[in-house]
Amino acid sequence: MKKYNYLVLMALLSLTVFSQGNTYTQGFGKFEGLAMTPPMGWNSWNTFETNIDEKLVKETADIMVSSGMAAAGYNYIVLDDGWMAKERDVNGNLVPDPVKFPSGMKSLIDYVHAKGLKFGLYNCAGVQTCAGYPGTRGYEYQDARFYASLKIDYLKYDWCNTAGINAPEAYATMSNALKTAGRPIAFSLCEWGDNKPWEWGKPIGNLWRISGDIYPCFDCEYHHEEGNWSSWGFMKIIEMRKDIRKFSGPDHWNDFDMLEVGNGMSNTEDKSHFTLWSMMASPLIAGNDFRKMSNETLAILTNKELISINQDKLGIQGFKLSAEDGLEVWVKPLSDENWAITFLNRTDQTKTINYDWKKNLIKDVDFGFEADFNKTTFKIKDLWKNKEAGTTKKNFVANIASHDVIVLKLIK
Ligand code: GLA
């Protein structure tokens, strides 16, 4: 009997030890394959900053579906800074703001999921977020478990209040925490490019910001006196990091920041902004108020042809081929040996293009693609006009208005 008891005790003990050993599995690295094409969605920050609540989110999700945005490919609804209460609870857990979200975050996320959409939240690697809410520093694993329990699909992770922290380590810690929590959550690094996340972000995240914040203007710098920092017009962001294209690709994208389409620029500038984000294979995260969206804004955001350039499965970021007197030519290799080519007029006057293909061969030295129009004739489609436009046998001749683009698909 004694021996029997001893055996039972040992068996129970070993089971406990065995099961303890198996309840915890440390995860490393990002969830692979969550962003094989650039993520598309909506984020609250550009229009609403911290003025967000459940009504806004529900209405935005409703319109995302009813307007055709979801059918065009937009599927993430991401709540940026300001979704939390100012303090963690007594156990150190994050608390969704009970005034802004009276029905609770979980029920809101269920609502968004029931529409066939995905849901994202924001936090920060520092002690506080940029708007002064509880940051994640020291709470990485606890917060990751909280996000997994809410069933979110995307985490944007910012870089305010991080004095003394090592960026690759801080982002790796959060990435590992998400992996350990076990729910596939796309990880969006928002480190602004300060520590070159393109050089170390690939095993850690699915996308990374490459610049400071965007501002709704063509080419301005908007200086915030308070805090001494700048937001950037979309051409400034494009110029800033156009040379890091070889670091971007399927599941590891250079993120040129949320879109400002519909946020105060002219329709022409919005069209150019959307075109360049498509050419750069940047994530397409709308940042406007869907409830007040004009038909023109919706048409730009849902242009199928441009989205197909952005979402092309080759996943290659475009580059500037030439620039002369403010008339620029940007190109992007596409699958099936096709190309996208964008003429951009940066000047204040209308310009005339007379483009001799045979004198303008394309060579992509980073990825090894080439188009020689002496050897190969391509059919041309004008993507914003959605019209055939001849072939590369003849010069392409057109007028292009100030700050406007003409986007052609060259089809082999
Ligand atoms: C930073 C980010 C923005 C936004 C705000 C929120 O500035 O770069 O995209 O998330 O913080 O406070």
Overall description:
The chain is 28% helix and 22% strand. By secondary structure, the protein is of the alpha/beta class. It folds into two domains: 40-310, TIM Barrel; 319-411, Sandwich (Immunoglobulin-like). Strands 9-6-5-4-3-2-1-10 form an eight-stranded parallel beta sheet. β5 (186-189), α8 (197-200) and β6 (207-209) form a beta-alpha-beta unit. The radius of gyration is 24 Å and the shape is globular. Alpha-D-galactopyranose is lined by residues 45, 80-81, 122, 129-131, 158, 190, 213.
> Which parts are unreliable, with pLDDT below 50 for 5 consecutive residues or more?
6-19
Number of strands: 20
Mean pLDDT: 95
Tell me, briefly, the overall form.
Answer: globular
Largest sheet: 8 strands, parallel
What is the compact description of this entry?
With 412 residues, the chain is an alpha/beta fold. It contains 12 helices and 20 strands. Helix 3 packs parallel to helix 5.
